[in-house]
Each structure stands twice: as structure tokens, then as C-alpha cells.
Predict the 3D structure of the following.
Amino acid sequence: MTEIPTYHHDLGNGFSLDAYSLSPEIDKDKLREMVVERDAGERSIADLEKLTSDFQFAGKIDSLGDLKVEAVDKPYEVPEQLKPYRQALDEKLKAEGKFNGPVALLNGVFGTSMRLSQGGYFDFMATKLNVVPADLVSDKYPAGKTLKELMPEFGITNEQRARYFALAFAMTPSNRQEFGLVQRAKGLGIASGVMSLSGATPGFKKEFFKKGFDFRGYYEGIVEQEMEEEYALNPGEFRLGGAYLIDGESTVPHAAIRIETHLSMKELAERNYGRTDAVNEHPILYSVNPRGINNLLNRFIGAMEPSSAFMIYITNKNVK
């Protein structure tokens, strides 16, 4: 078996972060360099505590079958004030060769019961908080202002944005003796190029409207597909634990599902080294002792998107 590049990074208090390269382009020296440059040193726990005020629990479920999902037979439309920007963005993204794929957007409040509308990926891109509409339509929007800044002026609420329902995977290898994270590949639609949980964004299917549609089966099927593609895990090698529903202005509403496997993160890395499907999603796998999560966050919170850091913090805090 090929010896994969591995780096053990001291987090203090007897804990370490283990990093495993999946990419032949990231050797041991490069792996060490990438981890070290993301370590900001000890920080105030206040940075972590602030995250808990920016995001919120929307519920807890024991299985995906506990989600009560309803499909709304009315496609999503961006708020009227954003339609000129949405049209300009559509033309720009299509010219770049991008595809406006169907996505399942939250319609209303997120929780154990939720309603979904069909929208397009471009709707999501047009309503991201950091977009600057004037960059594409300078005669209709104030220069330099982001959508987040414009929302109060336009009377647009967070619920009116195109927020699609996503799944996040809280990996717990070695029968929950490890907590697993990934370095997400650059260019991904969510949490690009940062340390995070892996995940998936289920699409919208016309079958949603059929009476008695099996949403649990649909979502569990997506998890199985992602586990095979991203980790080369077969259905018999993992099980789904409970999930925490997490929401907030700067994140997509998602279910963070605990994925349990007897395999260690090192074994998963060895299995996936050089696999294109895995590398394209996350070129590095990380492992930390669950009791060392706060040590990890105190040192690496700046290398994570705030929503990703909250996901890692809150899912681990509530894993029992």
C-alpha cells in the first residue's frame, strides 16, 4: 500500500490535528506548509462564542425520516428589486459556460417541517449576501453596496433570498473516536477552499409533487452516493446517526448528519489517495480527537467560513 503524505500538527493540551493528503500534488512538505499557514495560534474563545449568536439551531432529528417536507408548486422568483441584476447575472454566467441547474429552495421558515420550491442555481448566486449588484447593473444600484447592505433599503428579508436546503456530513470515524473534516477544493459552490465538513446539495425533482413521495429514501440515497464518491464507502461500512438542523443569515439551511464508520480517517485517506472523485471535492482529510474540537477552533477558526466553524462546533458539542 502506498504511504500517503501525513502531517501531525500540535494543537496544545495533548491534542493534535492529523492531516492526510489525497492529492499526489500535495506531498508531505506541502501538506505541512498548508496546515501551518492556516494556524493563527491561540485566540480568544470569544471568537468562537460569537459564532453561536450568528447562527441557530432549527431543530434536531433522529433520522432523515423525521423531516416533514412539502413541495410547493410555484417556482421561486427573486424579489422584484433584484430582477435587473438577476437577468444580467444570468447572461454573464451562461457566457462563462455555467449551467442553471434546478435546486431545492427553502420556502419560508426552516425546521423539522419545511416547504421547498424549485429554483435555479443562478437564483442562489444572485442572492448571495456578498454580491454587489452595481458591478453588473451600474445604473440601477448604488456602487459598492453588497446585497446584505441593500436588503434593509429594499425591504428584502432573509427568507426572500434563494436559500437551498443542503446536507452536511459530520464524519465520526473509528467508531466515533475521531471527528473528521476536509479541506474543500477551490471552486466549489459552498465553502470553497476552506476547512469544513463535506456535504451535498440535493436537487429539486418533479417527483416531489407525487403524493407520498419518499423524501427519506431520496435524501438517504444522496448520502449513500456521496459517501461512495467522496470516501469510497459502501453502504455496509457506515451508518447515519442523528442530524442537527442549522440556519443563519450567512449560511444555507442544512441538516448536519452524523456519519459513523468503523474505519479510521487514515484508512479512508489511504483508500481515496489519488481518486479523482475524492480529490475534486477535498484534497485533504483532517482528523481530531472530539475532545480537542475547541483547541482546533481556537487555532484554525480563521481558516474556516464562519458557518463551517459553527457547524463543526455545534455538531460535535451535541454528539452523544
Q: What stands out?
A: The chain has a mean pLDDT of 90. The chain has two domains: 6-62+165-318, 65-160.
